[in-house]
Design a protein that fits this description.
With 434 residues, the chain is α/β, with parallel strands linked by helices. It has helices at 63-69, 81-86, 117-124, 143-148, 163-166, 174-190, 205-218, 261-270, 282-294, 313-322, 332-335, 337-343, 346-349, 356-360, 378-387, 398-403; strands spanning 3-14, 17-26, 29-33, 42-45, 51-54, 56-61, 73-74, 99-104, 129-133, 138-141, 158-160, 193-198, 222-228, 240-241, 244-251, 275-279, 304-307, 325-328, 365-367, 419-423, 426-429. It folds into 3 domains: 3-54 and 413-433, Urease, subunit C, domain 1; 57-64 and 172-403, TIM Barrel (Alpha-Beta Barrel); 72-166, Diaminopimelate Epimerase, Chain A, domain 1. It is 30% helix and 25% strand. The strands form 3 sheets. Strands 6, 12, 13, 14, 15, 16, 17, 18 and 19 form a 9-stranded mixed sheet that branches. Strands 1, 2, 3, 4, 5, 20 and 21 form a 7-stranded mixed sheet that branches. A 5-stranded mixed sheet has the order 7-8-9-10-11. The N and C termini lie close together (12 Å). The relative contact order is 0.14.
């Protein structure tokens, strides 16, 4: 067995031993912390200004959407509908003949609304076009796209949570996605990201095939993929499928709550999956808590709340009683600060994107980006979580913020590809340890 001793400052993020002076590795796996072994095949000495630690995990993003956003017209800097429309030109259509745009934020536009189908028609000149807002939950299509997608009953072209229709938009070529993935994955490695959780509610076995193909060929981070609660099929929670770990059953409550959330949660639990529920406001949090209180998760699993962006104290008490975890996105506080200051009351601002309230209740929390909504930048999440530009009573310590971001504490059995060396110039992978 090939053995390696790493000596220097090791930050383990293990509550029982937060700092160590060495780490013994055998065949690409952490074998022992604070080892007394002298005879090894190789020794790595960390510099005095270097640290070995677990890499970061982005615990909630949308990988294929992130890659697709790099293949779309960037609308994120538009400040008015006129500016947005000027960015859309028929010559910007992709190889499949469709024009794609992404990233506008309606509340940041002068008109405070989405563009409409007729407005898109004025500039796209018959080229089928679909544009997505930054949240990814709303899209607008022009008349040519509406006809091809056979969309009826939406005269303004604005589609809210209409994956049934948008799934018929021609897919980007896998080769194009792979080309972008090589660049994106390299950028993530430079930020110390070694693992991600894809939280897309439309994921199914076919999605896993695509993710596995991209990951294998492009050298991506370790991927855990949630599966749509209505698309579980024969997949099993916690198993590995073509190198992709199968995660929670993702529940995306429909806008009108026409589907019975309690039944959706219970069905996923019966199938052996804990659930991860998309929760963005107080009313939806209440509906979700009722559903979780009705149906406990399978043994040795934990349900999750995705986002939990607005929560009253008494609701967080119920979260703690359930033992559910929370995955949240601190960067929204800076990137949407003007929106919150304008639209959210002072009382609700105190409940917005809670962190210290979660820590005080011993609720397990992880941080993430929700990319492509917010860039994958763990250092930014940690900074916002500790400085908090709004109602700073919810700020947390840097130690807590970092612990919420690491992929795992360093313990025996941890694969060494999940470790990073932190240097004055940034993060480096430890390929030499494998």
């Amino acid at each position: 067995m090939a053995s390696l001793l790493v000596r220097g400052k090791v930050h383990t993020f293990d509550k029982n031993r937060s700092v160590a002076t060495n780490l013994l590795v055998r065949d690409g796996t952490v074998c022992e912390i604070e080892s007394s072994v002298d005879e090894v095949d190789e020794i790595i000495e960390l510099g005095s200004d270097e640290i070995l630690q677990p890499g970061w995990r982005d615990d909630h993003l949308h990988l294929l959407s992130t890659l697709a956003s790099h293949c779309s017209i960037d609308l994120s800097n538009a400040t008015s509908i006129d500016e947005l429309l000027q960015l859309l030109e028929p010559r910007s259509a992709g190889n499949n003949g469709w024009m794609r745009g992404w990233g506008y934020e309606p509340t940041f536009l002068k008109e405070k609304r989405h563009p409409t189908r007729s407005e898109l028609d004025q500039v796209t000149l018959g080229t089928p076009a679909v544009i997505h807002d930054r949240s990814g939950h709303v899209a607008v299509v022009n008349s040519a796209a509406a006809e091809l997608l056979k969309i009826k009953g939406s005269p303004d072209g604005i589609l809210v949570e209409r994956q049934d229709a948008l799934s018929r938009v021609p897919k980007l070529e896998i080769g194009e996605l792979k080309r972008i993935a090589v660049k994106v994955f390299a950028e993530w490695r430079e930020t110390g990201v070694v693992a991600v959780t894809d939280a897309t509610h439309t994921n199914d076995q076919g999605s896993l095939d695509v993710l596995a193909d991209i990951s294998k060929e492009c050298g991506g981070p370790r991927i855990t993929a949630m599966i749509g609660a209505d698309r579980l099929g024969d997949l099993r929670f916690g198993e590995t499928y073509k190198g992709i770990e199968i995660g929670h059953a993702k529940v995306m409550p429909d806008v009108g709550l026409q589907e019975d959330l309690t039944k959706m949660v219970a069905a996923a639990h019966r199938a052996g999956f804990p659930v991860a529920v998309h929760v963005m406001d107080i009313d939806m949090l209440d509906e979700t808590l009722l559903a979780l209180e009705t149906s406990p998760p399978p043994p040795s699993t934990t349900d999750r709340l995705e986002h939990c962006s607005l929560a009253m104290p008494e609701q967080l008490d119920r979260v703690a009683q359930l033992g559910a975890s929370v995955c949240t996105q601190p960067s929204f506080l800076t990137r949407r600060l003007d929106k919150y200051l304008e639209d959210v009351s002072p009382t609700e601002q105190a409940w917005l994107w809670p962190l210290s309230s979660l820590v005080e209740r011993d609720i397990s929390v992880t941080l993430s980006s929700d990319s492509p909504v917010v860039p994958v930048d763990p250092d930014e999440w940690i900074h916002v979580a500790t400085t908090r530009p709004l109602q700073n009573q919810e700020a947390i310590s840097e130690i807590d913020a970092r612990a919420m971001t690491v992929v795992s504490p360093i313990v025996p059995g941890l694969p060494t590809d999940l470790l990073v060396r932190v240097t004055p110039s940034g993060y480096e992978s430890l390929d030499g340890l494998n």
